Amino acid sequence: MTIRPTSARLTVVAAVLATLLLGVTACGGADAGKGPKLAANAALPDKIPDGTVLRLGIPNAEVALKTSGLIDEVEGYDIEWANISGGPQSIEAFRADALDASIVADIPPLFATWTDTPVKIVAVTENPDPLENPIYELGVSPKSKVTSLKDLKGKKIAYSPGQAQGALVLKTLEAAGLTQKDVELVEIQSVDDTFANALAANQVDVAPLGGTQLTSYLAKYERDGATSIRTGIRDDATLIYGPEETFEDANKAAAFKHFLGLWVKAEKWIDEHPDEWVKAYYVDHEGLSFKDGKKVFESSGQTLIPPSWDGFIKRHQETADILVKEQDQPQIDVEDLYDRRYEPVVAEALKGGQ
After folding, report:
1. Which residues have a Cβ under 8 Å from the Cβ of 137 and sit 6 or more positions away?
2. pLDDT tens, 110-124?
3. Which residues make Cβ contacts (< 8 Å) with residue 226, sequence separation at least 6?
4. Could you give the 3-state DSSP secondary structure of residue 199?
C-alpha cells in the first residue's frame, strides 16, 4: 500500500526539492574543484592543490567544526556545506553531481549501488551502548494498542524500503517471529516529519522514529495517546559515503584525507563539550529545547569511531543479506563498498583520543 501525497506531504516534498536546489546552487556546480583521476589502489595523496573544494552534507560535522573553532584548521581547500542529509536526498544529490559526501545509516550505500549509483564508504561510527541507546524506537499512533512487539501482528507499519528505517522494520518483524505477510507494510519515504504525520493522522499504527523526530512526536501527541516501544535491534550504524567520483579525484581525495582528521577532532570535541554541543546542534540547529536535546544526545546521540572496520562491515553484510532475502535485491558483497585506504587515516587520527 502506498499513501498518496496529502497537501502537507506535498509541501514537505516541495521543501525538500527547494533545499536540494539551494544545495546545488550553493555548491558551485559540477566542475567545482575537479582534479586528476586517482586509481582505486593508489596511495592517498597529501598535496591539496589550490582551488580544491569539498561539497559536504554532514550537518553535525558542520555545526561541531564551526562551534568549536576547528573550522579554522581547514587548510588548502574549501568546504561548501549543503543542507542535504539522509539517504534519498544524498543519492539524488550524488546523481546531480551536487554533493561529494554525506552522512547516513548503512542502508543508503546499498540502495545507491542497487540503483546504479556507485559509491564508496570512507568512515564509520557506532554507538558505545547500541542496545541500551537505540537510534530508533517504534512510534505508536494515538489510537493504536501496541505495547509490545507481539502486538505488531495485523498492524499497519510505515515502511521505507531504501532507508535504515525499512531494514529496522524487517529485522524487528523477524525478531518478533513475524513475516511481512503478518502485517501491512505501508510504503512511505521518511523525509522530515512524514512518518510522524502519518502516525498522528492514524494512517499507520507504527512507524520508526529516531532522535529529534521521536522527541517532537511524543511532545505533540503523547497527551492524545501516542507512545513508543523499543525494538531490541541494534541500529547504530552510521557512515560517511560519497560517489566513487569523489574519491577518484586526486584533489578531493587529498582534501578528504585531511578532513577526516578534523572530523575525528570534532567528534572528540563533542564528547568533551556536551552542553555546548547540545545547545549548538539540538537547540539552535534542530529546534529542540535544551532538556529534550540533552535527552536525545545522552541516548542515541553519542558516537564511537572504531579504528578497525572489520566488525562494522560484518554487520553491514548481515543487514544486506536480510534485504536480499526480504526485498529480492541482488546479492552484494559490501566489502566492495568500502574504501579502506581511509581506515588507517581515521585510526591515526584516533591516536589523539576520542
Report:
1. 208, 209, 210, 214, 228, 229, 230, 231
2. 999 999 999 999 999
3. 139, 140, 141, 142, 199, 200, 217, 218, 220
4. helix
Q: 354 pLDDT band (50/70/90 cuts)?
A: low
Q: Quote the pTM value.
A: 0.83
Instruction: Give the C-alpha distances (Å, rounded to integers) separating 195 from 138, 172, 206, 306, 322.
Output: 11, 17, 9, 31, 23
Distance CA 32, CA 278 (A): 33
Find all residues with CB under 8 Å of 207, minimum gap 6, and list them.
138, 139, 157, 158, 165, 188, 190, 195, 196, 198, 199
Give the span between the Cα atoms of 176 and 348, in whole angstroms.
41
In the block, cell 566513487 appears at: 244
Residue 32 falls inside a structural domain: no
Residue 257 lies in a domain: yes
Number of domains in the chain: 2
Residue type, 230: R
By the 8 A CB rule, do 150 and 176 touch?
A: yes
Same domain for 211 and 160 = yes
What type of residue sits at position 75?
E
The label of the residue with cell 574543484 reads 33
Residues whose CB falls within 8 Å of the CB of residue 159, separated by 6 or more in sequence, listed in order: 165, 166, 169, 185, 186, 187, 188
Hey, what's the cell of 266? 570534532
Question: pLDDT by residue (tens digit) across 312-335?
Answer: 999 999 999 999 999 999 999 999
Are 92 and 156 found together in one domain? no
Please check whether residue 1 lies inside any domain of the structure: no
Q: Which domain holds residue 111?
A: 53-127+237-352
Q: What CATH number is associated with residue 143?
A: 3.40.190.10
Helix (H, G, I), strand (E, B) or coil at 190: coil
Per-residue pLDDT tens digits for 157-174: 999 988 889 999 999 999
Which residue type is seen at 182?
D
- 195: which residues sit within 8 A by CB, 6+ positions away? 139, 158, 165, 188, 204, 207, 208, 209, 213
30 within 8 A of 93, measured Cβ to Cβ: no
Q: Are 215 and 83 in contact (CB under 8 A)?
A: no
